[in-house]
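User: Fold this; tokens only.

Assistant: Input:
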Amino acid sequence: GLDFWRAVSLETGVFGWFGKSEVPATADPVAGTITPVDLTDTSTFSNDYFRRIGVDARVKYFDLDLYGSVFWAHDPFPGIDQNFIAASPTDHVGFFVEADYMWKPWIMTFLRYEQVKIFNPDLQTFAVDANGTVISGGEQSRIVPGVVFQIRQNMHLSSEVYYDLRNVSPATGYPE
């Protein structure tokens, strides 16, 4: 038959994303403050240039597909909190590795490991603020197993489960 998914190959790549977003012009990350802005006045905003750079690789060997990616990112203005306090510039790195296995042309299972590390001393791995709200940050690390059923052309059913290795529920943000 036409076993087009059964191939032996090696692919590599490099990618980059250099973007721009509009942020409040009165943000002062050093002082950790921001003054409210007028959303109808474009002069109260400035450009925030962020970037993502990475490499990826993929190895296909018949029914097994193994691939992954590593990236580095820089955000000069990663955002503000509910008290209008600006976060300091942030660098972060991340990677993932995934293995897919085709049992049949219509059934595929996969296992993925993904991790992101944020290099910002203001962010903690897990903390709760005075109101009891969970503050995420610092690091994310999880294993994701799953299965995909190809029901018919252009229609599939997939299911995956997230196992947070920090013992924090991805749905609630609270410890499991």
